[in-house]
Amino acid sequence: MLRAASNFRAVANRGLAASAAATRPGVPRDEREGKEIYTTVGIDHNEPKFDKILIANRGEIACRVIKTAKAMGIKTVAVHSDVDSNSLHVKMADEAICVGEAPTAKSYLRVDRILQAVEDTGAQAVHPGYGFLSENTKFAAELEKAGAKFIGPNSKAILDMGDKIHSKKIATAARVSMIPGFDGEIADEDMCVKVSRDIGYPVMIKASAGGGGKGMRVAWNDKQAREGYRLSKQEAASSFGDDRMLVEKFIDNPRHIEMQILCDKHGNALWLNERECSIQRRNQKVIEEAPSSFVPPEMRRKMGEQAVQLAKAVGYDSAGTVEFLVDSQRNFYFLEMNTRLQVEHPITECITGIDIVQQMLRVAYGHSLPITQEQVPLNGWAFESRVYAEDPYKGFGLPSVGRLSKYVEPRHVDGVRCDSGIREGSEISIYYDPLICKLVTHGDNREQALNRMQEALDNYVIRGVTHNIPLLRDIVQEKRFRTGDITTKYLPEVYPEGFQGTVLTPNEQETVIAFAAALNARKLARANQFLNQNKQRSTHVASFSKTYKFVSSLPVKEGERATEHAVEVSFVNGDANKAKVLIGGKTVDISGNLSLSLPVNSIEVNGEHITTQIVGKRAGEITVLYKGTPFKVKVLPEQAVKYLQYMKEKAKVDLSTVVLSPMPGAIKNVNVKPGDMVSEGQELVVMEAMKMQNSLHAGKTGRVKAVNVKVGATVDEGEVLVELE
Questions:
Q1: pLDDT digits over 333-377, tens only?
Q2: Which of 332, 459, 447, 355 is nearest to 407 (CA)?
Q3: How far apart are CA 606 and CA 351, in angstroms?
């Protein structure tokens, strides 16, 4: 294996990678320019290749494909909707074609317009990315008729594996381990309930053509089976244009482990090691890692061999992923095969040094894979955190929209890779997936890769939209996750009341309060100076020689009354970047650039290095981002605190009498009208955001007073949809 890895590097040095960094997974790179990519196989520029390809996708995956194509010397064509005209993937491509309006059904899913763009630009092949048309057999077939190559598997393989009902039969014949379930299509809600009872609850209801967590629901009883069938069927029709449903046994407490495969058109097939994707919410992955800490070498070999058996059984000829559910006894069962490039492919590239997109382009052209199974390495460990524009405090992540007013990726951290399709000023809209970036870290071992992820999350600057970094940051430091004790039920088990933010120890609370007080003291000291005058020096000395007294408080939980602390701040020898803070009888020494204007503050607290951010400032309050979670710290002069007792508290809204929009989105169904009697828990409205269906229910039994929305309307977060008497 060591010899194989050495051979990889030798090949790479003869190819694209003149830079040594290009052959080392985990080295920071300028990904946006496509100058360096994760590969140890290298690029042979004398090898025949496509002259021009079209990418039938958007966002980060379009940017990812463009980067490899550029490195190979292949020209690229981007397609885009009208609202995506200024997107990063459009700017990176050599050409760009608008294919319609913002809704995906009117642009990125319009096969006729994509085919017209191929004809108009002379593109020889199309890379579909993931989602959209990536597993659409009709699109792949139409491309072939038009004389263009589909950069993915052949239409038959997509059909065989994309249909979950049919794929189960093929997998069984290929001697792949299977989950008990109903071997057929579910016709309606009644049949769904009957089959679910026969299998035994809990069951998984999912779309036959689904993927990416869409069109999937777990049902524990008849009521959930009916609702899950209806909502999943609607999601499947919206996302895939195919609403056929199936039901199978839901394995409780499983791990979700998948095997990356790579095949060519000459009968060669490889497995590129596994990825663990057990950290999920609503069946969508949050954090992935490669390899899995749960998989020993012999199990890895068996999983890989079964994945390759399945691929060969359907004549597979591109990159794909075979997904398994794994129980506590390390038994693994076939779940599905994704016949496309997977979202989390970068972590496999990190541990193998193989650029999967490059190999997809080569295979589509007709070349053989350049390596054998024995040459596939497993070097180090890699994690991927999916950074979303989501509110993690609402169901572990409900979508958020807005414009990125400040955006800085942590590319300076060792071993970091950022796959993103946005930049400062980009708009996160209701029309598309709210993914901001796939933040990837690579290290020599699991602990180093995790530590790098922690540092990268602390240094990631995102302003303008709500994001899920608080949740990601808390997970990567949580004890169970650190030890690898995870299942797909990890989130509800670790956060049974939902994510509430990082819980600070008493010492950490003092650190946050002391830091905020030191920042406020420096601000006041600067305000007391006379700048550009002869007495500037004397006023500086006087301002930074004073002791500043505050009353400071930090709410530990939302709605809780915070304990007030008397705080005194003095600057050591008048140095604005060295503060001594007295709080609760303890002294906290803080040094570093104590500036309110920096996007990231890297400081020393009692000799310990910490990274914080200032994400909000207003009179008497500083919001400190610490360990990923924002903490609103009150820092007030003693006199100001005396006046707070005269301030009236804001009246609380009775949320049981209203149904509020939990996020921006579009109304799909309104099931009531004014005057209707409803019972607690009854579904009143269904809304869609970022292609996910969300059912909104009554908070109490009562009569409908008003319905403020109609089907098709777009709504903002917090908007009142239905009022009850």
A1: 999 999 999 999 999 999 999 999 999 999 999 999 999 999 999
A2: 459
A3: 38
Task: Compute the distance between CA of residue 407 and CA of residue 463 in angstroms, rounded to an integer.
Answer: 6
**Cβ–Cβ contacts within 10 Å for residue 602, how many?**
13
Distance from C-alpha of 634 to C-alpha of 536, rounded to nearest angstrom: 30
Residue 22 to residue 42: CA distance in whole angstroms: 9
**Exposure of 657 by Cβ count < 10 A (0-12 exposed, 13-18 middle, 19+ buried)?**
middle
Tell me which residue range forms the domain holding 664: 658-724
In a domain, 44, yes or no: no
Question: 632 pairs with which residues across the strands?
Answer: 623
CA 35, chain centre distance (Å):
25
Asked if residues 259 and 304 have their Cβ atoms less than 8 Å apart, the reply is yes
Q: How many domains does the chain have?
A: 6
User: Would you say residue 626 lies in a domain?
Assistant: yes
Longest Cα separation, the chain? 89
Q: Find out whether 275 and 346 touch, Cβ atoms under 8 Å.
A: no
Task: Please state, in angstroms and as integers, the Cα–Cα distance from residue 181 to each residue in 97, 202, 248, 326, following that order.
Answer: 45, 11, 4, 16
User: What is the set of active-site residues?
Assistant: 340
- d(CA 315, CA 318) in angstroms, rounded, equals 10
Same domain (yes/no): 172, 201: no
Task: Report the candidate in 474, 569, 462 with the shortest Cα–Cα distance to residue 515.
Answer: 569
Task: For residues 266 and 215, state if they share a domain.
Answer: no
- The answer to whether 693 and 667 have CB atoms below 8 angstroms apart is no
Query: Which tokens hold the place of 248?
Result: 């199978």
Residue where a domain stops, chosen among 325, 351, 379? 379
pLDDT in tens, 181-194: 787 889 999 999 99
C-alpha angle 691-693-695 in degrees, rounded to nearest 5: 160
The structure's pTM equals: 0.82
User: Are residues 185 and 174 located together in one domain of the fold?
Assistant: no
Task: Give the single-character DSSP code of 251.
Answer: P
At 317, list the tokens: 């000829």
Q: Which whole number is the average pLDDT over 20-27?
A: 32
Residue of 665, 674, 670, 703 lying closest to 684 (CA atoms): 670
